[in-house]
Amino acid sequence: MNDFGVITQPGTLRLERVLPGPIERVWAYLTDSDKRGTWLASGEMELHVGGKVEHVFRNADLTAPDDLPPPKYAQHAHESRMHGRVTACEPPRLLSYTWFEGNGEDSEVSFELSAHDGGNVLLVLTHRRLASRDELLSVAAGWHAHVGILIDRLSGRQPQPFWSTHTRLEAEYARRIPADPQA
């Protein structure tokens, strides 16, 4: 398993992680607003195909000490919102939904959960239809940082500060992901 997400085809990122189980607990952290708010974003989610998804991001509040985004992400210093629609829902194994629906370039994220050794859970996160390399870099670093926080929360550990982690990871993904998507 690669520590970093990989590009499986143009505009598609895949990230795999082993999480502490059981699978129902991980599913709750994907779908329950309060639990999801500890690692990604709070917000209502209607768990059926076509259901509404709202994410209320407060990235600077996810970890202590509170850290601020770099200037590139200053608009996300406090609260930002994302809306989407559920495209697949098979509890507790599969959840997919559109990401930033309505902006004209919505993408789609999928979470696939399966049993793994010793009561753990394999998470396969796939984010599709990313429109540009900049978006791919931002999303790769974002998912890497957010899922790292999820693992820490599930393990009872204090996570690393979000924005400084995101900044470090985005620079590393820029080195790993070719500027030419066909390379």
Automatic annotation (TrEMBL):
Domain Activator of Hsp90 ATPase homologue 1/2-like C-terminal: 78-147
One Pfam family from the record: AHSA1
Highest taxon of the lineage: Bacteria
Cited InterPro entries: ASHA1/2-like_C, START-like_dom_sf
Family: Belongs to the AHA1 family.
Protein name: SRPBCC family protein
